[in-house]
């Protein structure tokens, strides 16, 4: 099998990894003499782009033998996809880019603990990070959308999977470490009315201060729990109808400029809102957000709820999968019956890939058991509880169709996609202008497989 252009290699980096590596590069102080080394239609590739891509690819644990030619080729292919996307009117909305960027940045903020620590470590503000990363994030989204357009509705049959598997030499079959099938049912404690009323009372007191003449911007800095308050004093900027929470929007659009609302509850917490300005179907608002915290009694109620659910599952009055789908607060796993999935979508994960806390929890369990409710934190730091179900364990083994059909299916699908993409690239080269500096002629870019 020719492994040079797997889907991972062609479109290489997941967006989260791009941003992680980009943050590392942005934090470096080394000066690089820059120059244009390739052009694809109206898009250019700088030497610094290649170097950054090269470092990113070297940082991946699953890629070996990477060269700068590989990095440059990936960049040229991405630019081809972006150029063709422009020709074919395949676009991504700016709002989607901003949302994606916000989610990715929030991930890194959660990793380091706060916006302040991230900004202090790299010497840049969140807005500067966003400005520097926006184009690369948008480009990757266009690349992914274009790739999806090219391979739309592609499927493979079981017969194709078996045929593909037979083409793999026995000495090239991957060896999988111990894998486990584990599920979770998550319950996020909800603040009760007592805690909510405390927040409403605090916000009304803050509102009264504003009405008495104190600055809402100053009070937002002092009280708001919206992480963006440090850079915007609570002012959100212009949004279109439908962009913000319905309750927030309905209140903001019902007011006159300068008016301050009573507390409004949304999924994010409680707000007092000030309409700053309205322009047609867009509006600018300022808010102070306060989020009620579950009390010990609220947490106990959630624990009791999960205990009751565990009893029902063990009594076989409901299956774990059905309980997870209907009652788990973790939407990412609930739709799959609560089970954690591997990269192919199979409900089986390597013990090497699960987090240490979960690993040690499993180490104390027997297959078929369900834990009592366990305290843990979501990725964003939210306090939660969960039941863990240890359904199955597969010992280390060499890949085979019986145990690893889903993995082999995905490999077959990837190979089929690569074939279609190869055909697309061969044809697309005639539709876009590509000029690479003669310095890189030895790389034979886009020639080996096309």
UniProtKB/TrEMBL annotation:
A Pfam cross-reference name: Rotamase
EC assignment: 5.2.1.8
Signal sequence region: none
PROSITE patterns attached to this UniProt entry: PPIC_PPIASE_2
Domain PpiC: 177-277, 280-375
Entry keyword set: Isomerase, Rotamase, Signal
Protein's recorded name: Peptidylprolyl isomerase
Major enzyme class: isomerase
